[in-house]
Amino acid sequence: MPDVLMPNMLMPPSPTIRVDLQLIADMIEPGSRLLDVGCGDGTLLDYLVQFKQVDGRGIELSSDGVNACVSAGLSVIQGDADTDLFDYPGQAFDYVVLSQTLQAMRSPKTTLEQLLRIGRHAIVSMPNFAHWRLRWRLLTGGEMPTSEVLPYIWYDSPNIHLCSIRDFVALCQELGARIERGLFLDQNGTPRRLGSGLLLANLFGQQAVFLLCRDGAPSP
Fold it and tell me: Which of 56, 107, 110, 112 has the most CB atoms less than 10 A away?
């Protein structure tokens, strides 16, 4: 298996932030301009504002999420990322974050293109539909599997574009996006470097986090 990230390589954990969100936060430079796309109730955005002093903005589809963010003093607007990302100017942010949402977008390829257009760097986290447990359950049970990361029954799922880690890496190559950092979380929630072990990551990663930029763009 790829190397496990040692605890001292991560920021001190927050009791209110998930492991995958912590990995995203670790990729962001303090004081950056940031847009959180599909920010939900603002958990990540609030953490980044408090602990990394980012100039943070958010866009969220659900009114409940927007209300929660605004109540917490966050700068969040209601909008549909499938259509509203086109309205942002190019290179408007240092980082654009899309967490656990790409598979629910109507056009994931277009969405990723927009993230790379409006941000100098894009951070994308995603569930891995090729995890070995999901493959095994589909093979032995003959039904669409569920898991802790993917809890939805097939007919009630917002996930309309099923994607594996290998699929996402191939899409990045097609779009000319450079993967500056790639991490995956195994079934125990342990973060591991993607490295060159794509086969193992695709089998054993329940979810993954990628730091991306356009080829030729400077590293953060």
Answer: 56
61-106 pLDDT tens trace = 999 999 999 999 999 999 999 999 999 999 999 999 999 999 889 9
Give the position of tokens 């492991």.
Answer: 19
Domain annotation covers residue 136:
no
Whole-angstrom distance, CA of residue 126 vs CA of residue 215: 22
Helix or strand or coil: residue 108?
helix
Residues 176 and 179: their CA atoms lie apart, in Å, by 10
* Residues 183 and 214: beta-carbon distance below 8 Å: no
Place of tokens 């998930």: 18
Q: Please give the Cα distance from 9 to 71 (Å, whole number).
A: 33
Establish if 151 belongs to a structural domain: no
Q: Taking the CB of residue 167, how many other CB atoms lie within 10 A of it?
A: 17
Residue 29 has pLDDT above 60, yes or no: yes
Both tokens of 161, joined, read 């574009």
Structural domain boundaries, residue 73: 7-128+161-214
Query: Domain containing 28 — which CATH number?
Result: 3.40.50.150
- Residue 9: what pLDDT? 45
